């Protein structure tokens, strides 16, 4: 089963992700911010990570950087959840090491499609 | 979806609180980078959630709001008073929008139009853009907001089933991945598979640049691919590019239209990073399967490139993780059920104790110890359960900062709110029911308490008045003080108004405290004209009633020229009550101890019988009516002979006093309140019920309903001290 780690500081968003992803048959683990996400990666072994950008303690960019520099799952695909879709943000996400992005508000179906585009 | 919706609005409340707390810091000049960041995140999260629920009005306002916060955090905008005021107004409006959305409605667009345009204006100014440019930018953004995704239908036929598409001329795609592509978690094989869902694909890998194993380590990717893709008309170049959307800029990608055969392709520019001669062929067999997984072997990103983001990691990251308290959300009903059960437990324990006491003492020496342990435990459980309902007053206080701003603006005064002890915890119901009285008292403090900025300047005070909200725990109760640094109560004026309204007589000699307490009399208003603000048709008497219905007391102190403070003292919980168990006509009843001032035997004081048969008690020069509890509740038709009764001196709402005659006083104890209204019906004179240790039900007396307060019904006036005893005009 494909395992997904979803990192978002918003309770609502976490629940939506949980619902959408679990509904599509993925195994979901949730984290509340970048620090929490990195802590979870000490034991979790996801096939894909979805992360918000604006988060307390450690934001999405810092989190991605931490994942990419880590030695456990450094090449796992990471999707960025963003409300903006400007080129500047995409470029920044790409530079930070993100694999792709999803623009909020997302449609469950689209979310699953994008994930399927990134995991084997 | 309903649950999510509810969760969203709950989260919005928290986020609004976070925003408000940040604003307070900014306003006090205490804000730092993280303050603005956290405000930004709050608004941003609301925008994100609102988008998910299609709350467009909320989204567009949050968007404009967030832009301004972003300008502040990236230092394009300097925070001055004007900006703070705009942010405060915007946060108020945002709260209104959330409130409206939670009711399933929207606000009329004109309501926030000026705030919205102010936000946009400030943001435009900070970015050096004119409004027009900004709009254009936004339009582009809007268009981009609807990304066009691959048109994949739910059940695509697999490639095998798929008849060869109407043989459109094939497209040749040349693709070479950069190192960053692998580092970002991409996999060419997966990209190709994606493409394959759109048509037929032939893949050929170019291994010529591959480094032989012995010449490792490999630091750069060396594979490139030539793909021959055939699909029907519906798949155009844009659709192909879509597949490569995420790797744009991370690869060399050439899409060559139909007419050009693979052979005519210009050679790919030699990648600069190939260091080894092409003859150095790897062991790889060179088939399409060599598309293979770079996975774990992918070269690590270049450290020098990556160093920059590492050092610029947000400062917040260094904050200790332990500072976060983990919480869960529990349905209030469940908590109340638990509280109820604990109440039952306490009662059961009391019943057990009572039957133990009735046994010969020799039999239960060991049981005694166990019993006292049980009592300690059940007490501790009760306390812990009550603590679940407790909430910090912070959110309540923060709501008040808006009231301060609005009232000050409407009254043409300048005021700020200072809160002290906002971590103090109070029962949730209490905080909810405090909103109205607190709002009213704050309005009073600003409208009547604070002077105009000019007047304040003239007496050497800061033009900006301060309203302080202070919460603390004091001897098992919560004390909330609302303090202003205004002019204090104008006692001459209050006295005159009271005389004009017939509340007191001109010759009455009142102490300062008595005059201040006149404010709590029904219908009293000191404002020369009834102002729209604190007026609103209610006076401090309504505040007092509301506080008293929560089992609280309210008092007022004022110093001329220095200000006024109102002190509200409340019970920690509404689930238990400290009461006096009394006997009336062989029934046990509970009289709450809160309004109880004194217990007397009639012999100790003088009882006078009035001509209509009513008894009054002469007490310190004051005449106090006596009410027989048994007769009042209908246990007997005529009052008992006073000689055999005890008197409880009660001070009720608005300070009127009376003595309650009961047959006997048993004990003082804590009782668990059991509502009557939801189980039976409202009974006049009875507030609730409880179960005593002997398993019997005892009614809790509503002391405020035993006798009508002054000005309502028969009692016109309370007797003032030194009013020479002729309180007969009742």
Strand-helix topology:
The complex is a heterodimer of chains A (120) and B (730).
Chain A: E1 3-7, H1 11-23, E2 27-31, H2 34-40, E3 48-52, H3 60-69, E4 78-82, H4 87-96, E5 100-103, H5 108-118
Parallel strand pairs in A: 1-2, 1-3, 3-4, 4-5
Chain B: H1 2-27, H2 33-52, H3 56-73, H4 81-102, H5 109-127, H6 131-145, E1 171-177, H7 179-183, H8 188-196, E2 200-206, E3 224-230, H9 237-243, E4 251-256, H10 303-311, H11 332-357, H12 365-389, E5 390-392, H13 394-411, E6 415-420, E7 425-427, H14 428-449, H15 453-458, E8 465-474, E9 477-484, H16 491-500, H17 512-517, H18 540-549, E10 553-559, E11 563-571, E12 576-584, E13 587-592, E14 596-600, E15 606-609, E16 615-619, E17 622-628, H19 629-632, E18 646-651, E19 657-662, E20 664-672, E21 686-691, E22 697-701
Parallel strand pairs in B: 6-8, 13-22, 17-19
Antiparallel strand pairs in B: 1-3, 1-4, 2-3, 5-7, 8-9, 9-11, 10-11, 12-13, 12-20, 14-18, 15-16, 16-17, 18-19, 21-22
Helix pairs in contact in B: 1-2, 1-4, 1-13, 2-3, 3-4, 3-5, 4-5, 11-12, 13-14, 14-18
Features:
heterodimer; A: 120 residues; alpha/beta; Rossmann fold; five-stranded parallel beta sheet; 5 helices; B: 730 residues; alpha+beta; Four Helix Bundle (Hemerythrin (Met), subunit A); Alpha-Beta Plaits; six-stranded mixed beta sheet; five-stranded mixed beta sheet; 19 helices; 19% strand; disordered C terminus
Do you know the CATH topology of chain A?
Rossmann fold
Q: What is the spatial order of strands in the main beta sheet of chain B? A: 14-18-19-17-16-15
How would a textbook summarize the main sheet of chain B? 6 strands, mixed
Number of E-state strands of chain B: 22
* CATH architectural group of chain A: 3-Layer(aba) Sandwich
Name of the CATH first level of the largest domain in chain B: Alpha Beta
CATH superfamily of the largest domain in chain B: Histidine kinase-like ATPase, C-terminal domain
Query: Largest interface, counted with CB-CB under 8 A?
Result: A-B, 53 and 57 residues
N→C terminal distance of chain B: 62 Å
User: Structural class per helix/strand content of chain A?
Assistant: alpha/beta
**What is the CATH topology classification name of the largest domain in chain B?**
Heat Shock Protein 90
- Helical amount of chain A: 40-55%
**Proportion of residues in extended strands of chain A:** 15-25%
The secondary-structure class of chain B comes to alpha+beta
Tally the beta strands of chain A: 5
């Amino acid at each position: 089963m494909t395992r997904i780690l979803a990192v978002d500081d918003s309770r609502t968003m976490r629940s939506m992700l949980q619902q959408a992803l679990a509904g599509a048959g993925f195994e979901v683990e949730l984290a509340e911010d970048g620090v929490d996400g990195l802590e979870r990666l000490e034991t979790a072994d996801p096939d894909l990570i979805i992360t918000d950008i604006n988060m307390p303690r450690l934001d999405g960019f810092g989190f991605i950087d931490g994942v990419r520099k880590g030695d456990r799952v450094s090449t796992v695909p990471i999707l960025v959840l963003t409300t903006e879709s400007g080129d500047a943000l995409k470029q920044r996400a790409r530079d930070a090491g993100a694999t792709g992005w999803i623009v909020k508000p997302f449609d469950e179906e689209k979310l699953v499609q994008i994930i399927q585009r990134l995991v084997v | 979806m309903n649950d999510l919706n509810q969760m969203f609005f709950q989260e919005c409340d928290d986020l609004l609180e976070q925003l408000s707390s940040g604003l307070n810091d900014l306003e006090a000049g205490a804000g730092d980078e993280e303050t603005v960041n956290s405000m930004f995140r709050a608004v941003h999260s609301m925008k994100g959630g609102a988008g998910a629920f299609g709350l467009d009005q909320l989204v567009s306002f949050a968007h404009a709001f967030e832009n301004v916060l972003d300008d502040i955090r990236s230092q394009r905008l300097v925070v001055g008073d004007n900006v703070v005021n705009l942010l405060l107004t915007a946060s108020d409006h945002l709260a209104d929008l959330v409130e409206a959305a939670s009711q399933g409605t929207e606000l009329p667009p004109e309501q926030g139009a000026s705030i919205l345009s102010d936000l946009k204006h400030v943001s435009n100014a900070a970015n050096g853009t004119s409004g027009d440019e900004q709009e254009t930018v936004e339009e582009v953004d809007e268009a981009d907001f609807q990304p066009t995704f691959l048109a994949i239908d739910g059940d695509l036929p697999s490639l095998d089933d798929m008849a060869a598409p109407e043989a459109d001329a094939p497209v040749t795609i040349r693709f070479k991945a950069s190192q960053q592509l692998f580092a970002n978690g991409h996999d060419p094989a997966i990209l190709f598979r994606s493409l394959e869902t759109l048509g037929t694909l032939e893949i050929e890998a170019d291994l010529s640049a591959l480094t032989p194993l012995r010449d490792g380590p490999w630091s750069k990717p060396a594979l490139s691919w030539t793909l021959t893709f055939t699909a029907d008309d519906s798949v155009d170049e844009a659709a192909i590019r879509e597949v490569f959307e995420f790797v744009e800029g991370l690869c060399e990608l050439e899409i060559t239209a139909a007419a050009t055969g693979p052979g005519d392709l210009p050679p790919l520019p030699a990648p600069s990073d190939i260091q080894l001669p092409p003859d150095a062929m790897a062991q790889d067999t060179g088939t399409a399967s060599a598309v293979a997984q770079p996975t774990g072997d992918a070269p690590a990103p270049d450290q020098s490139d990556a160093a920059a983001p590492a050092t610029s990691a947000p400062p917040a990251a260094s904050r200790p993780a332990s500072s976060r308290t983990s919480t869960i959300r529990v349905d209030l009903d469940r908590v109340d059920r638990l509280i109820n059960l604990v109440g039952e437990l306490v009662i059961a324990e009391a019943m057990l104790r009572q039957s133990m006491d009735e046994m010969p003492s020799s039999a239960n020496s060991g049981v005694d110890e166990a019993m006292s342990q049980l009592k300690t435990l059940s007490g501790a459980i009760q306390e812990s359960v009550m603590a679940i309902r407790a909430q910090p007053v912070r959110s309540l206080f923060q709501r008040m900062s808006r009231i301060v701003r609005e009232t000050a603006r409407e009254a043409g005064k300048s005021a700020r709110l200072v809160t002290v002890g906002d971590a103090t915890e109070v029962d949730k119901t209490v905080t909810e029911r405090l909103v109205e009285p607190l709002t009213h008292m704050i309005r009073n403090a600003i409208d009547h308490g604070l002077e105009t900025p000019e007047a304040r300047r003239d007496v050497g005070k800061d033009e900006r008045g301060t309203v302080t909200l202070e919460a603390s725990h004091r001897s098992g109760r919560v004390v909330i003080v609302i303090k202003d640094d205004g002019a204090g109560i104008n006692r001459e004026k209050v006295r005159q108004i009271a005389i004009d309204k017939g509340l007191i007589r001109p010759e009455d000699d009142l102490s300062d405290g008595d005059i201040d307490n006149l404010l709590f009399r029904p219908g009293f208003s000191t404002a020369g004209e009834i102002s729209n603000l604190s007026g609103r048709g209610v006076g401090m008497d309504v505040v007092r009633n509301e506080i008293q219905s929560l089992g609280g007391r309210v008092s007022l102190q004022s110093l001329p020229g220095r200000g006024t403070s109102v002190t509200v003292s409340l019970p920690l919980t509404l689930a238990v009550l400290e009461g006096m168990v009394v006997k009336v006509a062989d029934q046990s009843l509970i009289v709450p101890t809160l309004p109880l001032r004194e217990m007397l035997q009639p012999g100790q004081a003088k009882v006078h019988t009035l001509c209509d048969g009513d008894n009054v008690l002469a007490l310190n020069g004051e005449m106090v009516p006596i009410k027989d509890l048994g007769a009042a509740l209908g246990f007997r038709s005529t009052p008992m002979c006073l000689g055999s009764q005890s008197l409880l001196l009660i001070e009720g709402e608005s300070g009127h006093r009376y003595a309650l005659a009961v047959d006997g006083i048993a004990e003082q104890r804590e009782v668990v309140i059991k509502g009557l209204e939801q189980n039976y019906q409202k009974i006049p004179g009875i507030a609730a019920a409880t179960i005593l240790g002997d398993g019997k039900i005892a009614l809790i007396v509503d002391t405020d309903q035993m006798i009508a307060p002054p000005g309502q019904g028969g009692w016109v006036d309370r007797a003032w001290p030194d009013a020479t005893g002729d309180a007969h005009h009742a």
